[in-house]
Amino acid sequence: MKKIILSGLVGALLLTGCTNRVTDFTIISTKNVDLSAMSEYQKGDDRVRGEDSLFFLLMLPLGNRIDLKEAIDNGIENVPGAVALVDGVVYVRSWHIGLFGETAYVVEGTPLINPKYASIEGLPSKYIIAQWDDVKEKIVNKYVSEKEYLSAKSKYTKDLTSKSL
Questions:
Q1: What is the per-residue DSSP string for 4-25?
Q2: Residue 11: its pLDDT value, please?
């Protein structure tokens, strides 16, 4: 009987995890939000979630660090045209199984959408190739067809692969 209780306690210690609410927010963003155009923005229908996490092995991080900005960005970027999240919450989640675990920032909220950025309608194409122009000394964006884009992508990938070998 003592072995069963001891095994249960050891198991409970090895399988720990928790989620802590850090804050609630009315509006949060890491993007440049034009406040003068706020009346044009629309609230999304569904809540979105963004997170940034870091795994640990033997108490050592397997990466750089977790970043709340990345979690917010990931949430906003889930919805085309979103510039912020509203009516949401920020959590810190962590769990551990023995010597392995994870810690993460989790952001949940309703996206605030700028309709001007929400669709690609009106653009010449949804495919863009950016190239350096030596004469103008700047990056030039060119709208291309899907076929041109895939061809350039294939060539670029082959060039990278041959250079790394």
A1: HHHHHHHHHHHEEEEEEEEEEE
A2: 57
